[in-house]
Write a structure and sequence with these properties.
The protein has 160 residues and is of the alpha+beta class. The protein is 35% helix and 19% strand. The two termini are 21 Å apart.
Amino acid sequence: MEKIVELDNFDRKILDVLAIDGRVSVTALAQRIGLSKSPTQARLRRLEDGGVIRGYRALFDPIRLGRDHVAFVEVKLSDTRETALAEFNRAVLRIPQIEQCHLIAGAFDYLLKVRTTSMTGYRAILADDISTLPHVASTSTYMAMQAVKEEGLVPVGPSR
């Protein structure tokens, strides 16, 4: 289990700014959080080295790329022993259309977020890939009509 990193208000401010603008310069970041450049840079390096900041990336607009068809898929497995879960986990990583995969405590075993270009594309992924994953017993699909909040921008803000 990973160790939780203690954050103070300046660390939280850094994360809040970076969540909105990951390309901000250290100088601008320092101005926005109210510290000078050197301590801001040191805090940023500590957050990176400690694994709090895992990386920086570009976010693409899936609608402009023609990938606006989103389905959520409940997956029930026929076997839920650790070896079966590990097999399923490894196999799911090989399907690029599966954006997210979560092991669930509930009436089903996994929840997948699948993004494709169309219903026809989704049906092919379901039939050829998802249904053939190791130990899949059944699936249920829910089609998303609109993304209200999707990018996961959660302000770190004060500790709760």
